[in-house]
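Moderator note: this is an archived Q&A kept for reference. The question asked for a predicted structure of one protein chain; the sequence and the answer are reproduced below.
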Amino acid sequence: MSLKKTDLIAAVAAHTGSTSKDVAAVLSGIEDVVVANVAKGEKVVITGFLTFDRAQRAARTGRNPQTGEAIKIKASKSPRVSAGASFKKVVNGRAPSPKLVRVEAGRSAWERAAHDTSAHPSTSTANDNAMVLVTAFRSRLAEGASEIDSLDPNDAELIGLNAANVALASARWSQVLGDRIDTTQASELLGISRQALYKRQSAGSILGLPGQGTTWFPSWQFDMLSRSIRSEVSDIIGAFRERLDAVDPFTIAAWAVQKQEEDLEGIAPADWIGNGGDRRIVRVAAERAASRLAQ
């Protein structure tokens, strides 16, 4: 079972007795400080735990997997993370693992319920994931206990059902189309207005997926370090637009997260781009996919 960001927030909140909101704020702050310093070439060391720094790869010559021709790969920089000595000792069984605790003192009944999973034992990975979601949900609800207590039971049930439907829709979306951010998040990330964002969408430099009350933007399109749109995105959108009379953005989004056995050595285009794969090769893969759809 993998621990995602929301899982980590819920686990730290349970371990320390903090609210999920406070933990999320601190974690977000740590991310910003680490990314900002590593991006400008500084090393960030959390003694005994992790070291973050920037690796530099010199320009080199590679091979196009489709044609075998030699291609020049530009010099690049990438973030690097290494484990500290204490961390390694625990992982290798040479030191005891930290004992996770739940701080109950001073908590309300709502807050204790937010972290009580003993009544819901899990028997599979699916159940484990469901309990992580429920734990995070309860933890967030604990912060608004007074408002919830004032609800009519029927209203509370309806709100709960609607919230569950939203959670399921989000999970299904992630499985099919990958992670995404909304219009507000995309505007803030890029430092541009909504109008400027929609202009870029119309111009084909970014992929937007219409949703209820917002537009969703698949996360793989963004370079989070430079807070910019990856240049390969316009290539991919252009390849589909040039070969299809009407382009469904969901088709492109779905293609981007599916492994391409023939064209990209079994790698999904989103991962190919994220790993710094050759831009021309992913463009050719998009052209072939669009051509197959056009037949």
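Archived answer notes: Strands lie at 44-46, 50-57, 60-63, 70-73, 76-83, 180-181, 209-210, 215-218, 222-223, 228-229.
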